[in-house]
Design brief:
The structure is a homodimer. The first copy, chain A, is of the alpha/beta class. Chain A has two domains: about 35-225, Glutaconate Coenzyme A-transferase (3-Layer(aba) Sandwich), CATH 3.40.1080; about 240-470 and about 485-500, 3-Layer(aba) Sandwich (Glutaconate Coenzyme A-transferase). Chain A is about 25% helix and about 20% strand. Chain A contains 15 helices and 27 strands. In chain A, the strands form five sheets. In chain A, strands 1-11-9-6-2-3-4-5-26-27 form a ten-stranded mixed beta sheet. Chains A and B meet through α13 and β27 of A and α13 and β27 of B.
Chain lengths: ~500, ~500
Amino acid sequence: MKNSLNREIPDGLKPFQSSSDFRHQERRLIPEKSPVDQSLFYPSLEAAFLAMDIKPGMTLSFHHHLRSGDQVINQVGELISKYDIKGLTLAPSSIFPEYRLSDLIIRQNITQIVTSYLNGPVADTIAKGHLAGELIMQTHGGRARAIESGELAIDVAFLACPVVDKSGNGSGAYGKSACGTLGYACSDWRYAKKVILVSDTLVDKLDSYQLDHSHVDGVVMVDSIGDPAGIVAGTTKITRDPIGLKIAEDTATLLTELGVIRNGFSMQTGAGGTSLAVADAVKKVMLKNQVKGKFASGGITGYYVDMLNQGLFEHLYDVQCFDLEAVESYHKNKNHIGISASEYGNPFENKSAVDRLDFVILGATEIDLDFNVNVTTDAFGKIIGGSGGHADTAHGAKITIITSTLTKARIPIIREKVRTITTPGSDVDILVTERGIAINPLRTDLLEKLSHSRLKIMTIRELLDLTYAIAGKPKEIPSGKKRIGYLEYRDGSVIDSLYDSPLY
Amino acid sequence: MKNSLNREIPDGLKPFQSSSDFRHQERRLIPEKSPVDQSLFYPSLEAAFLAMDIKPGMTLSFHHHLRSGDQVINQVGELISKYDIKGLTLAPSSIFPEYRLSDLIIRQNITQIVTSYLNGPVADTIAKGHLAGELIMQTHGGRARAIESGELAIDVAFLACPVVDKSGNGSGAYGKSACGTLGYACSDWRYAKKVILVSDTLVDKLDSYQLDHSHVDGVVMVDSIGDPAGIVAGTTKITRDPIGLKIAEDTATLLTELGVIRNGFSMQTGAGGTSLAVADAVKKVMLKNQVKGKFASGGITGYYVDMLNQGLFEHLYDVQCFDLEAVESYHKNKNHIGISASEYGNPFENKSAVDRLDFVILGATEIDLDFNVNVTTDAFGKIIGGSGGHADTAHGAKITIITSTLTKARIPIIREKVRTITTPGSDVDILVTERGIAINPLRTDLLEKLSHSRLKIMTIRELLDLTYAIAGKPKEIPSGKKRIGYLEYRDGSVIDSLYDSPLY
């Protein structure tokens, strides 16, 4: 037998016709050994919800990477309401003002909440005493530890996932609701009894993904998992407030005097205006002294992306993207590495990001004479936040610095005793204010290094007296009387209790 | 009850002691829902081999990413010999001179071989007529197609994997035997009935991997999967031969006259000295005219990595890393993307890399008056290579250029008829030699564009006559008489037969 090129070929074989002959043929695919199970895809969130057979007493979890724009927790909330399931524990990694859970709490569909951060209507509803059970507030690292240890046993995790593929792998890197790394979802994905990915973007095959299908029990495509406008708040800007800028510059001077801005160092700051001003002041020192850092970690903003791109850091370790620049960089730059909450701050994680930090810059609602910090409640006992990574980084970092003005809205931030201890004073080293800097007396090493500082080093008691002299001594507002919950430290021990607010 | 910070906490809960109290505690981990099956790990390659219950008639496959340094095919070969299993089909993606399979062929342990490229002792053993069954030579893209369609049904794939994690995910990105992308292993991994990863580097958890555990049936840790010196041949250098450089410069001039070096273009060349010289000449045009290309593809060398890093290309699509610079870049640069053989050249793959190429620069052992190209056998009928991606890229690329000197070791490369057709002339557009350039008459569009070329455009017949005038007309060496196998075109049709060499 001869083919079209006049070559002899063995009988019984298909002769070559032309190089484009395949266009007339159908692609044939044998089953893969581990076939994609199409029954993995539920036709609706309601179908998945019903298939999970959710019963009173179960624990449902969510992550907060879509932040104010998240629709998944609200959509599941509507189903809880529709089927009127009572006595559930909700364990989202954080709760934003846009999450509509208050009615579910009041009607006792939700009777216990475990989370790391909350504010807005849900916080107020709980502070008013409406939650039948308790509010348990964890750190980001503590939440990962509680999940992996079984202390926080999750029955069903509904995980918003900006893009999924047909095999059930998921990523936050792109899709119309892209949010970047899904660091806070990793423990839920790995240890929840059942995992449902909820997405609005389906592709054939993802080349890389944070959540592989091996732990996924179902996928649901919905019209929208989130409002992009709420997912990222837009690029956070460096503060223009001259007091904030002075605090930032003094902090950079302090870090320079301590000699920590050196080759191979690592740092974390928050994403607020003063935090970014500190980062900016540190950056100027780095450029001036030609210093290259090892990594920056935490929630990442475009400001750190720029520093990575300028070669000022080798890597970013990103547990949560705060803006679109961070999402884009996470998608494209191999040195911008997504990490899980466990890799970020689990006390039992070997070489967690927080344990490798040279310094961290944090905020405070209150700080007391023992350097205990409160970022959970305000002066009136309202719940306005929570640890997030505060206690994790404060413990891990070699130097923990709180930056704050002496008063906020005329309320002193230094107190004899903080209302709520989020982070123990033993892990808080320095307070930088616009009028002076206080060093935790436990850190004799730092006091010694700063003995010839050109900055104004004072005791925290002196700073408190100065505050009283300026703003007067505030009237004590008593705690509420009804205990509504408690704060778990990162190892699961209880560091403080929460009471209803006397405001209500 | 009060904790160490003198805070009231609910009874029955663990009071906070100190922030470092966790150091006295044990980490607790509940089982993951899809637990890592530790029975996945075999204690030895022999144990895995025996567990696979390999019987006569079965097909075993391997990839060739460790190239000359591969030890896995040799280690499995020793087990085939030890247990004297007869009648096996071996389907490695390529066979290098260092692969010790000749005795297994002679003793009929291996009776059929399916591969895309081979040379050295195994090729000679087959050309001498020792293979009981047939040698089937495929293209890289055709191999992927044959595997996914079930035409090449693999019973057990032994896949060398430079790093694996405890869950059974594998990557070539690092480890002591790092080889970069594992593009030629992907079809085997996905479709083989059983998949064994053989590695010499174990880590707890890989953040990204090309081969996920879902298709893996077993993992074996061995002392060494390969000799690093043989894995990468060292950086390939641009030729210094003035004839090679002239061919490269003429090729770049030709491409410029054809107007294809423009923003958004894509290209592929081989990794040989003249190919890199063409790439270098193209690069100079790009720099001069400020052109940025979309991608370069194929086997990737450090030369292309530099071009990526200089911003001359948006992406590299890499099915195989040819040197350490490529391995390093694949590991670190998100724009250096590993692709499977299917994504590279499967005729049925939508938007395969080859189908998106503007031009490809290829070599030839022989090219005939119909532009058919032979890269499989030499003038004496010895098997010296095979298609690899030759026929895939020649078909996919908009312009296919063969660069060669008119004679090699005094043997003309232009023939009336090539001994073996690897790539049909319908897919070969231009031959660039040191004495002139021939355009395939089928490409009237190219002939028209080059009608005012300042290069020496001739017919291929004229180039052949010129060769005869210089080197004389070579004596015809007849084909062997015993058919030893055949060449499958990328769609599985048979494009030519292989005969034993008259040399032996």
